[in-house]
Amino acid sequence: MKQTAFSWSVDFSEAGMLLRDYLIRKKMISRQALTDIKYKGGALFVNDESVTVKRRLCEGDVVKVVFPKEEISLSMEPVSIPLKVLYEDEHFLAVNKAPCLPTIPSRFQNDESLAQGVLHYFQENGIPSTIHTINRLDRDTSGIVLFAKHRYGHSLLSRQQQSRKLNRTYVALCHGTPAIEKGMIDRPIGRKEGSIIERCVTDGGQQAITRYELKQSYEDYSLVELKLETGRTHQIRVHMASIGYPLLGDDLYGGERSMIDRQALHSRTMRFYHPFKEKEVNLEAPIPDDMKKLIQRERG
Q1: What amino acid positions are annotated as catalytic residues?
Q2: Which of 103, 128, 235, 268 would be 136's cystine partner, CB 3.0–4.6 Å?
Q3: Exposed (0-12), middle (13-18) or buried (19+): which is 110, by Cβ within 10 Å?
Q4: pLDDT tens digits for 10-35?
Q5: What domains can you pick out in the chain, each with its CATH number?
Q6: What pLDDT, in 10s, does the model give residues 121-134?
Q7: What are the two backbone dihedrals, phi and then psi, of residue 30, each rounded to the nearest 5 degrees?
Q8: What pLDDT, in 10s, does the model give residues 90-113?
Q9: How would you classify the pairing of strands 132-133 and 167-175?
Q10: Separation CA 74–CA 142 (nearest Å)
């Protein structure tokens, strides 16, 4: 199985650094990853010479890092399901998740999952990777899910997500019409007492910030666009319900299923900086048919 490898040339400002510090501080490779490289079949080279992390670097040195082989999860069974690929290169894969499909397998659900479909896709196309999920969506939420094809890509994109540099926008249909057309919901979210699934706004929860904007008002419901500044479980659903506008179909948080049989929520766009191609990547996933019909019906 092919191993992931990267090479860099040491510049003047990096000369004199220990290889360990260069890799951790300049290339954002974690200490755990360096340990795995040492003990799980990876390698470090400077000018094609095998070295340790204690090697001191000179200007013009060529550093090469070979990561260990990916360990394919034996607990996840590959499943052939249709994938709508939005973006793919040797480092990342973005797909448009269908509604009513879990992102990853769950012990609470026996359904097939998107991750199992991606694992099958990797195997069918000879991609030597296990599953590295950058973001997740609730089972009934549709839209963009991003996967890394190796652990280094996963680490770098996870850092972007934690520092709020991986930007996502959602569209949703909610009951009623928000009184304030454009606003910010800053309310902490935590697990609801007595439930392993449901969340709620609570003083003891984690900070959660959602920005929303009214896009279209209909007779009984509205189309809103939402941007997350944090990524709490059920964040949009909980926040919209907390201000009195639960999502259509979201009966867990007060919505009704008379018009749609899942929460009307779609992850429409994603923007991130590609750390290997050194450019911004912009993704967009078309609104699914069940939501589109409600939008077009009212416009019609």
Answers
A1: 138
A2: 103
A3: exposed
A4: 999 999 999 999 999 999 999 999 99
A5: 5-66 (3.10.290.10), 168-266 (3.30.2350.10)
A6: 999 999 989 999 99
A7: -70, 160
A8: 999 999 999 999 999 876 666 799
A9: unpaired
A10: 27
